[in-house]
Amino acid sequence: MTYWSEFRGGWRPLVAAALGMGTGFSTTGVVTSIMAPHFIKDLHWTPAAFAQVGAVSILMSLFIPIAGRLADLWGVRRTAAIGVIALPLCMIALSRMTGDISQYYTIFIIEAALCVTTTATVFSRAVVTHFQRARGLALAIAASAPGVTGILAGLFLNPFVEANGWRTGYLVTAAITLVCGGIALWLLPPHRKDVSVDTQATVIAPPRKRSWADYPVIFRTRAFWILVVAMVLCNLYQTLVQTQINLLILSKGVNKLDVGGIISAFSVSMVIGRFLCGAAIDRLPGQLVAAVGMGLPCIGLFLLASGFTTTATVMLAMVFIGVAVGAEGDLIGVLVSRAFGLVIYGSVMGLVTSAISLATASGAFMLSIILRKYGNYDLFLTISGVSALIGSVMFLLLPRSATAAPAENTGLAGKAA
């Protein structure tokens, strides 16, 4: 099958993955960033107390690998259905908060436990199963959906919440996620494509429901540890993206009316980053594309910490960060599928994504301490910028056989790694 003909044969799982991810758990960061200033003010919470919720996301490190494993064993449709049902219910619960911040923590934990089944860890499996030569671009299309949601949220949800309140905003968002998630489940093919047709590297035999023997082999693979450590270092700043964008922008003295435009620019840059990275990784060595793509946020983070706080400078900084956030979704999916094949794709994706979750939680804990002590984001921006720079360089250590494009892949990635 040629590069472009894969899109004709795999349009249903591609559209399903895009719709599911675009209205799933991955978009809650943008929604929260829009809602946060409103419910923090109404419920009389401090920014430092709210920042601690990111530390609760450490629990996601327990749930994400389970979601990935279930996708390998049950298939995408049954696994994703858990989150499609749970996410709207969590949003309805958020709209009913009365002021005790423990309510938010509790809802967040439930959301993290059940709704990770609507993230790329699960839905991207439908894409990599039906695409090989165009895998990077196909993942870019699917993973760009949260960015499109972010654009629409900045343009429509932000003013809607300003006019109607955050409680109504959560109810409307709950209805949208339920309808779109249901359509995504309907579009998914009823049967999984036989993963044995994939010609890329497969380091482990097909998973068995009564055996966990896959994991020792994964942990002995060099490429796995490089991916994990690099992703942890590159994602320390992610707590800013998930819950603090609006607050961060406002802390730089930007006019409140310009915030929506900056968030939209950030979301547009995510989409651009996904497509640039997706097209590049289908044709260029994966470790090189990863090093460049994941190294971009350090520029934006350093700009934000520099003291130049004009609207244009803040927007430029958020664009650099957005490009990297967009690129990440393509990079993880393609690198994991090339190094480990498809039969355990969800299991490995779950572990790598879990490590990212730990990094985000660690960043949230660090940010909370820094905000309490210094009252601003600058030190955290500097530390996370240096961390992202080091992590991006680590991708160059990945074995070439585990990151080569399909036409070049020798099928020995697992042995070389």
List keywords for this structure.
single chain; 417 residues; mainly alpha; Growth Hormone, Chain: A; 22 helices; 0% strand; globular; disordered C terminus
Written account of the structure:
Mean pLDDT is 82; it is low at 193-200 and 408-417. The chain has one domain: MFS general substrate transporter like domains (Growth Hormone, Chain: A), CATH 1.20.1250. It has 417 residues and is an all-alpha fold. It has 22 helices and no strands.
Distance between the termini: 28 Å
Q: Give me the Rg, rounded.
A: 20 Å
What does the main sheet amount to?
Answer: none
Integer count of domains: 1
Give me the CATH superfamily: MFS general substrate transporter like domains
